[in-house]
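Suppose you are handed a protein chain with no further information: no name, no annotation, nothing but its sequence. What can you learn? This example shows the usual starting point.
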Amino acid sequence: MTRKEVSNGVDGFIDEDASLLYSDVPVITIGNETAMPFVQTSPFYTGTKINIMKPRADLPQFALQFIATSLQKHKSKYSFSYSINSTRLKKQRILLPVTPSGEPDYDYMEQYAKNIHHKKITEYLDYLGAAKKDLTG
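A reasonable first move is to predict its three-dimensional structure. Written in structure tokens, the prediction is:
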């Protein structure tokens, strides 16, 4: 993982010593200077200045995606001169939906993120169908 703002933070693929591979996934990674959060579901190698947020409990990928998106909403207050480091990240507060008992509602987060994912895939497939129709006349 790198501090990129695109491509899920992936800069490339390497063949390195497996002992350096971070394999305790899924996690959220956040580059210090970019403050861009990404969900990582596959083992990865990381560069410097990358924060790795490991959930305390097993959470589904889409619930983590919801949390990463919530973190991204605070991205604008961080910069290269005021980077998001582990100390600032621990103090960062985000709003999440909760159950009636006040616990984070991970089921809601997962379903909400899945619905958005499904909607985007459907829109893309509709676009491809329309583009194919335009090409074939």
